[in-house]
Amino acid sequence: MRILIVTDAWLPQVNGVVTSLQALVTELQALGHQVLLLSPQGFRSRPCPSYPEIPLAWDLWRVGAKIEAFQPDCVHLATEGPLGWAARRWLVKRGLAFSSAIHTRFPEYVHGRWPRVPLSWGYAFLRLFHRPSQAVLVTTERMRETFASHGLDRLSLWRKGVDTALFRPLALPRPDQPIFLYAGRLATEKNLEAFLDLELPGEKWVVGDGPLRAALAARYPAARFFGYRQGEELARFYAQASVLVFPSLTDTYGLVMLEALACGTPVAAFPVAGPLDVLEPGLTGCLDDDLRHACLAALELDRERCAERAGRLSWRASALEFLARQPMLDGGPCLEPSLSAIPYR
């Protein structure tokens, strides 16, 4: 089939949305489908206010022509940014069906950056954007319950996976002192201070970049800041770490947790949505309102068991689940209904 994916988040950005979409495109192509991805790379763009590494497309009048030229069988709107809105408007005007996805707790992120913006406004924005969608894809059952409670409907599960060929246990020398690792964006919503303020043995490593990097590096000189790392280099950071610390209170999932687990590294986190959906307490991670206690307890977990549990999740199963949720442009289902019950392993 010809599958069009519209996203405002794409390379060179480094985040969970981009990672998920990269894996999805790779698997869809491996299954024999033709995929076109509309991203800011094909448009003129300007930096997002307060997040300059995120480009926002502005010559949006070209979106409709690109959709027409590709003649897709299915269209998926991955983000609620300018490209997503432009494609939504074009599709709705012609009465064409599409799916969409909610990857982040957008209302909470906006409220965290601009507290004067009520959460209710953010959820009103989400309801408006996703209302015409035939299927609104979310990563976990907990996300589906949360967004349903805020008035969104047609919510369906699209679970994520991990690349176990890349993220795997590596035979590296074990450090003399514990290494507590954070991996991800350095931004307000990630709650980095909750990790960096902790008194922990050993070293604190921070892999990633973002608008807070300079301020955090100046405030916490004892921590080591490495910037973005990808591929085998990132896998080595995970494998060297004693514990991955995931301090976010608002992430909807947290792919870095799966990547770390696949490398055999246990996770310490708060008992909130995201970690509660990914981790098995006492087996692959420790959840505690006292993050320091969770970090120290995670040192005792079995690394082999962490890798074994993460290895059950595949991007192929994730891609098949995505396909089973897609409507045809005329509103019909993409695949046989039986594929909606794919065993996720």
Shape: globular
Q: Give the biggest sheet.
A: 6 strands, parallel
- Unreliable runs, pLDDT <50, ≥5 residues? 336-345
Helix content: 25-40%
> Measured on Cα atoms, how large is the radius of gyration?
20 Å
Number of helices: 14
Secondary structure class reads alpha/beta
- In round numbers, the mean pLDDT is 91
Quickly describe the structure.
By secondary structure, this protein is α/β, with parallel strands linked by helices. It has helices at 16-30, 63-70, 82-93, 106-113, 119-130, 141-149, 192-196, 213-219, 231-240, 255-262, 275-278, 291-298, 303-310, 315-324, and strands at 2-6, 34-38, 45-48, 51-57, 74-77, 99-101, 135-138, 155-157, 179-183, 203-207, 224-227, 243-246, 267-269, 285-287. It has 14 helices and 14 strands.
What would your notes on this structure say?
The protein is an alpha/beta fold and 345 residues long. It is 36% helix and 17% strand. It is built from 14 helices and 14 strands. Strands 2-1-5-6-7-8 form a six-stranded parallel β-sheet, with helices on both faces. A six-stranded parallel β-sheet has the order 11-10-9-12-13-14, sandwiched between helices. β12, α10 and β13 form a beta-alpha-beta unit.
Features:
single chain; 345 residues; alpha/beta; six-stranded parallel sheet; 14 helices; 36% helix; disordered C terminus
Task: List strands and helices in order, with pairings.
Blueprint: E1 2-6, H1 16-30, E2 34-38, E3 45-48, E4 51-57, H2 63-70, E5 74-77, H3 82-93, E6 99-101, H4 106-113, H5 119-130, E7 135-138, H6 141-149, E8 155-157, E9 179-183, H7 192-196, E10 203-207, H8 213-219, E11 224-227, H9 231-240, E12 243-246, H10 255-262, E13 267-269, H11 275-278, E14 285-287, H12 291-298, H13 303-310, H14 315-324
Parallel strand pairs: 1-2, 1-5, 5-6, 6-7, 7-8, 9-10, 9-12, 10-11, 12-13, 13-14
Antiparallel strand pairs: 3-4
